[in-house]
Design goal:
This protein is mainly β and about 230 residues long. The chain has one domain (about 10-230). It contains three helices and 13 strands; from the N terminus they run βββββββββαααββββ. It has helices at about 130-140, 150-155, 160-165, and strands at about 10-15, 25, 35-40, 45, 45-50, 65-70, 85, 95, 125-130, 165, 195, 215-220, 225-230. It has an eleven-stranded antiparallel β-sheet, with no helix packed on it. The longest helix has 11 residues, at about 130-140. Bound molecules: zinc ion (2 copies). One zinc ion binds near residues 38, 73 and 76.
Length: about 230
Protein backbone atom coordinates (compact mmCIF):
# COMPACT_ATOMS: atom_id res chain seq x y z
CA UNK A 1 0.00 0.00 0.00
CA UNK A 2 1.43 3.37 -0.91
CA UNK A 3 1.46 6.39 1.39
CA UNK A 4 -1.10 9.16 1.39
CA UNK A 5 0.07 11.95 -0.91
CA UNK A 6 -1.43 15.28 -2.01
CA UNK A 7 -0.34 14.81 -5.62
CA UNK A 8 -0.46 11.17 -6.68
CA UNK A 9 1.97 11.42 -9.59
CA UNK A 10 5.58 11.82 -8.48
CA UNK A 11 8.10 14.20 -10.10
CA UNK A 12 11.85 14.33 -9.69
CA UNK A 13 13.09 17.89 -9.27
CA UNK A 14 15.94 18.47 -11.74
CA UNK A 15 18.15 21.55 -11.79
CA UNK A 16 17.86 23.05 -15.23
CA UNK A 17 19.14 26.54 -15.95
CA UNK A 18 17.27 26.43 -19.24
CA UNK A 19 13.96 25.19 -17.85
CA UNK A 20 11.08 27.18 -19.26
CA UNK A 21 10.10 29.62 -16.52
CA UNK A 22 6.43 29.33 -17.46
CA UNK A 23 5.41 28.15 -13.99
CA UNK A 24 8.31 29.65 -12.04
CA UNK A 25 9.46 26.47 -10.30
CA UNK A 26 12.65 27.55 -8.56
CA UNK A 27 15.18 25.97 -6.19
CA UNK A 28 16.81 27.94 -3.36
CA UNK A 29 18.05 31.52 -3.87
CA UNK A 30 17.52 34.68 -1.82
CA UNK A 31 13.95 35.85 -1.33
CA UNK A 32 11.84 38.48 0.38
CA UNK A 33 8.65 36.49 0.85
CA UNK A 34 6.51 38.14 3.56
CA UNK A 35 6.30 36.17 6.78
CA UNK A 36 9.17 33.84 5.89
CA UNK A 37 11.41 35.03 8.68
CA UNK A 38 13.12 32.90 11.33
CA UNK A 39 12.52 34.45 14.76
CA UNK A 40 15.38 32.40 16.26
CA UNK A 41 17.98 33.54 13.75
CA UNK A 42 16.39 36.91 12.94
CA UNK A 43 16.94 36.33 9.20
CA UNK A 44 14.88 35.00 6.27
CA UNK A 45 13.97 31.33 6.38
CA UNK A 46 15.84 29.16 3.93
CA UNK A 47 13.74 28.93 0.75
CA UNK A 48 14.34 25.48 -0.68
CA UNK A 49 11.75 25.24 -3.42
CA UNK A 50 9.07 27.42 -4.98
CA UNK A 51 6.36 25.69 -6.99
CA UNK A 52 4.06 27.59 -9.34
CA UNK A 53 0.45 26.48 -9.06
CA UNK A 54 -0.18 27.38 -12.71
CA UNK A 55 1.37 23.98 -13.45
CA UNK A 56 -1.78 21.86 -13.59
CA UNK A 57 0.26 18.68 -12.94
CA UNK A 58 0.98 19.66 -9.35
CA UNK A 59 -2.00 21.82 -8.51
CA UNK A 60 -3.11 21.47 -4.89
CA UNK A 61 -6.90 21.02 -4.70
CA UNK A 62 -8.70 24.09 -3.38
CA UNK A 63 -5.52 26.18 -3.24
CA UNK A 64 -6.07 29.93 -3.42
CA UNK A 65 -2.38 30.79 -3.53
CA UNK A 66 -0.37 30.97 -6.75
CA UNK A 67 2.88 29.70 -5.31
CA UNK A 68 3.92 27.18 -2.72
CA UNK A 69 7.22 27.80 -0.99
CA UNK A 70 9.09 25.08 0.86
CA UNK A 71 10.90 26.74 3.74
CA UNK A 72 13.14 25.59 6.54
CA UNK A 73 15.91 26.84 8.79
CA UNK A 74 19.08 24.83 9.35
CA UNK A 75 20.85 27.18 11.76
CA UNK A 76 18.65 26.95 14.85
CA UNK A 77 16.30 24.66 16.76
CA UNK A 78 13.85 24.62 13.83
CA UNK A 79 16.09 21.68 12.90
CA UNK A 80 15.09 19.60 15.89
CA UNK A 81 11.30 19.87 15.77
CA UNK A 82 8.51 19.91 13.23
CA UNK A 83 7.99 23.26 11.53
CA UNK A 84 4.44 24.32 10.63
CA UNK A 85 3.38 27.38 8.68
CA UNK A 86 0.21 28.52 7.01
CA UNK A 87 0.17 29.60 3.37
CA UNK A 88 -2.01 32.68 2.91
CA UNK A 89 -3.98 33.46 -0.27
CA UNK A 90 -1.29 35.90 -1.47
CA UNK A 91 1.36 33.11 -1.16
CA UNK A 92 2.96 34.73 1.89
CA UNK A 93 3.26 32.65 5.03
CA UNK A 94 2.59 32.77 8.74
CA UNK A 95 4.56 30.63 11.20
CA UNK A 96 2.41 28.45 13.43
CA UNK A 97 4.80 26.16 15.27
CA UNK A 98 8.58 25.71 15.33
CA UNK A 99 11.48 24.68 17.55
CA UNK A 100 12.69 27.63 19.60
CA UNK A 101 16.31 28.37 20.45
CA UNK A 102 19.62 29.08 18.78
CA UNK A 103 22.58 26.83 17.95
CA UNK A 104 26.27 27.70 18.16
CA UNK A 105 27.17 27.45 14.47
CA UNK A 106 30.86 28.08 15.07
CA UNK A 107 31.03 24.91 17.14
CA UNK A 108 30.82 23.42 13.63
CA UNK A 109 29.66 20.00 14.71
CA UNK A 110 27.30 18.28 12.27
CA UNK A 111 24.50 20.50 11.00
CA UNK A 112 24.68 23.48 10.80
CA UNK A 113 28.25 23.42 9.58
CA UNK A 114 30.68 26.29 10.09
CA UNK A 115 30.09 29.17 7.67
CA UNK A 116 26.56 28.02 6.86
CA UNK A 117 25.27 30.50 4.25
CA UNK A 118 22.20 32.73 4.53
CA UNK A 119 20.91 31.11 1.34
CA UNK A 120 22.09 28.77 -1.43
CA UNK A 121 22.54 29.58 -5.14
CA UNK A 122 19.18 29.58 -6.93
CA UNK A 123 18.26 27.81 -10.14
CA UNK A 124 15.15 27.12 -12.20
CA UNK A 125 14.07 23.50 -12.07
CA UNK A 126 11.98 21.19 -14.17
CA UNK A 127 9.75 18.44 -12.86
CA UNK A 128 10.29 15.05 -14.51
CA UNK A 129 7.37 12.65 -14.09
CA UNK A 130 8.30 9.32 -12.52
CA UNK A 131 7.49 6.33 -14.67
CA UNK A 132 5.53 3.46 -13.19
CA UNK A 133 8.58 1.23 -12.68
CA UNK A 134 10.50 4.09 -11.03
CA UNK A 135 7.68 4.76 -8.57
CA UNK A 136 7.45 1.05 -7.86
CA UNK A 137 11.16 0.93 -7.06
CA UNK A 138 10.77 3.83 -4.61
CA UNK A 139 7.79 2.19 -2.92
CA UNK A 140 9.73 -1.05 -2.52
CA UNK A 141 12.79 0.75 -1.17
CA UNK A 142 10.71 2.43 1.53
CA UNK A 143 9.50 -0.94 2.80
CA UNK A 144 12.70 -2.29 4.14
CA UNK A 145 13.11 -5.84 2.97
CA UNK A 146 16.35 -7.69 2.31
CA UNK A 147 14.96 -9.57 -0.65
CA UNK A 148 13.55 -6.55 -2.47
CA UNK A 149 14.66 -4.46 -4.20
CA UNK A 150 17.73 -6.24 -5.52
CA UNK A 151 21.23 -4.82 -5.86
CA UNK A 152 20.69 -4.80 -9.59
CA UNK A 153 17.61 -2.59 -9.11
CA UNK A 154 19.54 -0.24 -6.82
CA UNK A 155 22.15 0.17 -9.54
CA UNK A 156 19.59 0.69 -12.26
CA UNK A 157 17.73 3.37 -10.30
CA UNK A 158 20.73 5.12 -8.75
CA UNK A 159 19.76 8.32 -10.57
CA UNK A 160 16.64 8.56 -8.41
CA UNK A 161 18.86 8.82 -5.31
CA UNK A 162 21.01 11.33 -7.12
CA UNK A 163 18.03 13.51 -8.00
CA UNK A 164 17.52 14.00 -4.25
CA UNK A 165 14.33 16.08 -4.39
CA UNK A 166 10.81 14.95 -5.24
CA UNK A 167 7.38 16.56 -5.52
CA UNK A 168 4.24 14.41 -5.43
CA UNK A 169 4.06 10.64 -5.35
CA UNK A 170 5.67 8.56 -2.64
CA UNK A 171 9.26 9.80 -2.35
CA UNK A 172 12.27 7.85 -1.12
CA UNK A 173 12.17 8.19 2.65
CA UNK A 174 15.43 7.82 4.54
CA UNK A 175 13.61 6.41 7.52
CA UNK A 176 11.24 4.14 5.59
CA UNK A 177 7.50 4.46 5.21
CA UNK A 178 6.53 4.05 8.86
CA UNK A 179 8.36 7.00 10.36
CA UNK A 180 7.29 10.11 8.53
CA UNK A 181 3.78 10.70 9.85
CA UNK A 182 2.94 14.28 10.88
CA UNK A 183 -0.27 15.76 12.26
CA UNK A 184 -1.76 19.17 11.49
CA UNK A 185 -1.45 21.40 14.58
CA UNK A 186 -4.82 23.00 13.74
CA UNK A 187 -7.17 20.12 12.78
CA UNK A 188 -5.00 17.27 14.21
CA UNK A 189 -5.42 15.16 11.08
CA UNK A 190 -2.65 12.99 9.70
CA UNK A 191 -0.97 14.95 6.90
CA UNK A 192 -0.41 13.66 3.38
CA UNK A 193 3.04 13.99 1.83
CA UNK A 194 3.80 16.81 -0.55
CA UNK A 195 7.55 16.75 -1.26
CA UNK A 196 11.01 15.83 -0.03
CA UNK A 197 14.21 17.84 -0.20
CA UNK A 198 17.55 16.03 0.05
CA UNK A 199 20.97 17.59 0.57
CA UNK A 200 21.96 18.32 -3.02
CA UNK A 201 22.27 21.92 -4.19
CA UNK A 202 24.55 24.17 -6.23
CA UNK A 203 26.91 24.62 -3.28
CA UNK A 204 29.34 21.69 -2.97
CA UNK A 205 28.93 21.66 0.83
CA UNK A 206 25.30 20.70 0.35
CA UNK A 207 22.26 21.84 2.30
CA UNK A 208 23.12 19.64 5.26
CA UNK A 209 26.87 19.01 5.01
CA UNK A 210 26.20 15.31 5.47
CA UNK A 211 24.97 12.31 3.53
CA UNK A 212 21.51 11.01 4.31
CA UNK A 213 19.66 14.14 5.50
CA UNK A 214 16.20 14.92 4.18
CA UNK A 215 13.37 17.36 4.85
CA UNK A 216 9.92 15.84 4.45
CA UNK A 217 7.06 18.22 3.59
CA UNK A 218 3.41 17.47 4.28
CA UNK A 219 0.38 19.66 3.68
CA UNK A 220 -3.11 20.11 5.17
CA UNK A 221 -5.50 21.19 2.41
CA UNK A 222 -8.29 22.16 4.84
CA UNK A 223 -6.07 24.45 6.95
CA UNK A 224 -3.59 25.45 4.23
CA UNK A 225 -0.82 24.40 6.60
CA UNK A 226 2.61 23.11 5.59
CA UNK A 227 4.44 20.75 7.90
CA UNK A 228 8.20 20.11 7.54
CA UNK A 229 10.55 17.87 9.45
CA UNK A 230 14.28 17.17 9.09
CA UNK A 231 15.15 13.47 9.14
CA UNK A 232 18.46 11.66 8.99
CA UNK A 233 19.26 8.02 8.35
ZN1 LIG B 1 16.59 29.75 12.31
ZN1 LIG C 1 -5.39 20.89 9.26
Amino acid sequence: MSLNTIISQGYLVQFDAHAASEHGHYFCGAHEIPGAWCPNCDKPLLRLLTLGMTDGRIRIPGALFEQVHLFFCCTCEVLSESLFYRILPDSSIELIQFGKGIIDIEAGYGLPYRGYPSHFPGTPVRLDALKEDEQEYITLSNRYDHSLPTREMHNRYRYIYNADHQVGGEPLLWQGHEYWEMFCPMCKKSLPLLATIGGGCLDSRGLFGMVGGQIVYTFCVECSVMGAVFLTT
